[in-house]
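B., you asked whether I could sanity-check this one before it goes into the benchmark set. Here's the sequence:
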Amino acid sequence: MDNHLLQSLTCNFSSKNSPNHPTCLPEMLSCVPHAYIALVAMVTGIAYCCRGRSDCVTPWSHYSGHTPRWLLSLLLLLCYMCSIGEGAISASNSEQPWPYLYVPSILGLVATLLSIVLYNTWETGNYRVPLLSLLVYWLGIGGLQGWNVWRMVHAGFAGDLYLRFYITILIAVAYVLLLGIELYLLLTKRYCCGSCCAVPPSLPPYDLQDRDMTFYQPFVNPVSMVTYWWLNGFLQLGYKRPLEMSDLGKLPKEHHAAVNHKLLGQAFNKHMNKWTTAHPARSLWASYITVYGWRFFLGCLFQFVGSLLSFVGPICIDRIVQYVELSHVPPSNTTVIQEVSLVTFDTFIQNGFVLTVVLLVALVTKACCLHMAYYIVMREGINAKTGLQAMVYEKTLRLSSAALTGGTMTTGEVINHLSIDAGNIMDFFFFIFYLWSAPITLVVAMVLLYLSLGEAALAGAGLMIVMAPVQWYLAMKMGRLQKETLEQTDQRIKKSNEMLQAMKLIKLYAWEDIFSDMVQGARRKELKVLLKGALYGICVTFITRATPILTTLLTFSLYTLITDEPLTAGKAFSSLALFNILEGPLMVLPMVTRVTVNAVVSNRRLGKYFVAPEVDSTDLEPRGESSYTRRELSFENGFSSLEDQRNPLVINASLLGSETFELNDNTAIQVEDGTFAWDLESKQPILTNLHITIPKGKLTFIVGSVGSGKSSLLNAILGEMTTITGSVRFASAQDSIAYAAQKPWLLNASLKDNILFGSPMDRGRYSAVISACALQPDLDILPAGEETEIGEKGINLSGGQKQRVSVARALYSTAEIVILDDPLSALDVHVGTQLFEEGIMGLLAAEGRTVVLVTHKLQLLPQADLILVMKEGKVAHQGTLQEISLASPHLFEQWKDEWDEQEEEEEEDTKKDEKKDKKDEDEKETKDGKLMTQEERETGMVKVKVYFTYAYAGGILLVIAAMLAQVTLRGFAVARDFWLSDWSSAASSQNGSQLEISSMFGEIEHPNVTDVEYYLIGYASLSGGVILMTLVGALLFVYVSYQAAKNLHRGMLDNIVRAPMRFFDTTPLGRIINRFSSDTQIIDQKISPSIMSVVSGTLQCLAAVVVNAVVTPWFLIPALPIIGFYFFMQKYFRASSRELQRLESISKSPVLASFTEVLGGLQTVRSYKEQGRFSQQFQGNLDSTARTFMWLNTANRWLGVRLDLIGSVIVFAAALSSLLAAVLGNLAPGLVGLSLTYALSVSGYLNWLVRSLADVEMKMNALERVKHYTEVQTEPREDTTVALPPTWPSRGEVRVSGLSTRYAADLEPVLMNVSVVFKGGEKVGICGRTGSGKSSLTLSLFRMIDNFAGKIYIDDVDISKIGLHALRSKLSIIPQDPVLFAGTIRFNLDPLDSRSDQELWDALAAAQLKGVVSDLPEGLDSVVSEGGENFSVGQRQLFCLARAFLRKTKVLIMDEATASLDLETDSVLQTAVTTAFADRTVITIAHRLSTILDYDHILVLKDGRVMENGSPQELLDDTNSLFSALVKGS
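And here's what the prediction gave me:
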């Protein structure tokens, strides 16, 4: 196109006054619409300010074409930016810098921004009429741009490559499309037609109608969505004060556990039906794709775009350096400057300043795309995890009892499905796109390297290929070591848990050091494997870091040799940037491999679990209104009827394996020809040939010896067993069941909630049940009455109290059928009698409910309407008592003899087993009824002393050395890159002009660039330094981590084992175990890498700033405020991030706690048909965890986008400053390339640094928690201050003088001014009612509680002057609750391994256990299972007796040691005590008064005071004595 045609296009009109100054009417006219929109914006702003901001602006896209409008607006912004650049370059190349070439574009850019702001304001405020002003704007500006296009086509621009033509076309098309969207909105909504014709505004989505829903990410506009702008207010709140859970609000429905559970469950069932049950794992994978596939595709698309944009940086570096090299070449004298010189596309894209803007736009777009991809996979990952956890919970509620009890799976495995397996699937979702993006990135990078460096790049690629199998091998090795580490960790935690469970006994026997050493031994094995794994990790890191360095060295070395061309700055630093890109996939691929393998294994485990056997039918829907009406009832105590508002348990055909049909009116349950087993694969059934008819509204007793099948029969009725043959039928399909298990199952809730169990409160009915179950006295002494918190597994209730609460739950329910599994055995006679008479014969009989009772109380048999006698899994006899007496007189006579025995041994009027489990009977709770202390939670920044704690634990000199190694490493890296800059600059100067240009090493004579030896030796040496310091630094950090892990765990363990018992009573065991498990794991494996990341990231960021400042000092002008803003940003973010991390950690505990809790009570939950309520509660806990996770990770995205934007600005500033310095001065091209390379990596370093800082702070939270336990107050560890003879105590005399004691300084005394003397060798019995102080007195002998006044002397030695270990090792105790440890019989009898085999056998013989142990295959080395479950309770008690025999101490305490024994075992125990401890002082807390009537001394306590003290005969002779009254009551 000739110059005349060009001027005719651009300059149709000239000024009359200045004919040589062209003016352009089209460009002038295009300013009018822009001015119009500016005026509209001004008016809108004034109106907005006058009206004031609305208190509630819903961030929801109301209008049609919302997303296309935003995308077109962003396209316009991009086009106007290009137009401004094109105009500026055209003006600079023209004779005069004509303003019309770029000013209209600037106005267009401003107008587009204003139109975006106006539209967003009107849309969020739901103002539709003002949109007419935008319609006018689109019409005007679109017409003018169309005119421009027509003129350019008419002038012949269509076939040329002038950039202005194509930009104008894009702008015109965008305006036309925006006009079309506006017209469509006008026609569909008719908002300008008045209220009579206008379509009313649409209601917001359901989520936004809930004011508690504050997670707006799915509903905001695209710009806010990709920048997370809507999160600013939330983070501002977190900056002002610590965030609380209530600040998080709710999540949208799509993130709720119930929604994801339903979607995943439906998809899984669909695919299971399609592929059969042989492929549950495949069905799960297909379910993930079905439910989340299209969203993952969208995330992968964003990630793909972001990955491609990462290559823009190296390409731009090469082009910018080339531009700098060309700028040093003087312009040709033949160049003709035109009056108006328009720019072609090639000229535009080769301009260095344009490339800096392209680089900025590419980096910003890359940041938005990648963080959007991360957000999507994170969102779907937590959704999948939540859905899977809900599915696991639902499956657990349906799980067959045989699956858990038959050995096919353990409770630990089920818990792992919930926590570990679901978490592994989520982790796989997080890394899923790396499976394809990492290989693609490697391939693209290698292709670009080949195009730049030719065959030399192939050598580098070959080195990477060679190293890949090595990395793979090491990664697999690490995976196996990780498995071994988990096994060792399990062993350590198992031993720790066993130690903590038995801490009271361990302290009483002074065995702290023994068990601490056992845990430490397991810890040493664990640390050995951890160290081995860490060394393999160093190898992986070393190879990963060294491979790009060696590849760079090899490639640059071969380039000149192969091509015989100098290594120019453009090739060197663009290649270096590509090698930096290669480092990412190389680092992530081994990790992705491990994550993928873990996910495949976990998915297979989950699939197997989801097809595990389950009960035939359970209803997970919440309770609704009852389908039947209860009869009206009345009671003398004012109890009134309660209309049942709960859906009864409907046991139907599918549940019982038979058809359900109505029985006659007098039959409640009928079993015909029933044969039952726990598992279909069982070779022998548990119950056989059952023919049972249970009468309706009557009392049925089930009796029989231990193991006869009584409980199994109840489980068969409940549908918990597998029906092999026969049927179980109910009178009505509507009959509901209440069930009280033999082992009571209580919730960690208030006592009232445990009784109500989801039923509505009826005060009259509730009071009647409390009275019938004899719970009122217990409520009176509980600190908060019925609101008292019941601890884990009912830890703060006695066995009898737990059983009565369980029965009260069954009585309060309105079920037609009540099944009670031996509840009376845990109760004393009087309480049991009251419960039977008032509860079973009173309330239940008055209601006409059917009762099935398993019992050993044979004296109650005359009350039964039907008796079932079980024997060896069959019903041996059934009928009334009279019918059985006629059918089997021998059995009847045997029953009568047992009745007489039971009546003769009625116990004193105290509650059997009322001593609180793990707590003394006299222990007081806090006044508000809360037993457990609140878990500590730090707020604000992690204190500096916490970091120093880690430094000192790891070795302060080692820490300093590790830091110096990192500084040295970064110094070598910077020097190497400057050396490369000088090398490439020398090549560029010789290859280009002969101008003297400055380099890092001054204006020097460079060696001949064809001889690369000089530069190669220097580059190789510095690269070797980098590789060496990488290895040294990693080794030092690993050793610091090893030392810190070892010392911190040892410090915590040593402190915990010496903590007072009050600490263990008020701290949940799970909380302590959490310190030894998850917190310790974080310290072992995660803190050191996080600190290393912070140190490395900080040095890399500093290096980038220093390098750019050295290359171009002007860089500091924009850099300093940017860095200041960066520091404020990370501080602003971390304030919220810290608290969100802490909230997330806290929110995980209820999920696991509620799951493990329901695992122990599946039968109870299913019988009461409470699966729906428990599922809803569990899903609520999952929603809380998902809520904290979503907020935390979205906040991470908020930070990531901003840090990447800051990094993009830094790159832009570095590129612009170095480019100006090179063009205007004599800056070497190599230094320009070096500056850009470092600046290009700074955004990644910034992101990594802040994330690492936040991660370190969170990991330090684990250190804070461990540190807290190293500072827990311990028992006094003073040494013995008096001289003790070796045989002390030789007599066993105990003298108590004015003793007052309490459990804690803030609690009331439990013993007050007690004075008593027990002579050596006496047999002393201590008795009294519950809470009298019996156990407190014995514990005070061991100084287990606070003896704050008075003295205790043993053989005239004040025990307060004796060290605790010395004191306790000289005393023996047989606790009420027998404790055995996992190990051998030998270890349980003699943990110190100080006794001979003969002594062990003698002790077993004295305890009547020699025959039992000698019958075992391995004798003394026979295995004792965890908790001694492979022995009966009585045998366990006798083992504890044998243990006491071996200690041979002069003082023995028996703390209700016969409470859980039958008469025969008790007799054996008393005989053994009489003979074996004839010369020792024996202090017995009496349970059966008959066992202490022949003792030498009786002490009667009441309310912590001594009421009576004397011989049994003296106290019995006094008819008014308390002891006499107790004996008469028995």
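One thing to flag: The longest strand covers residues 667-677. Otherwise nothing jumped out at me.
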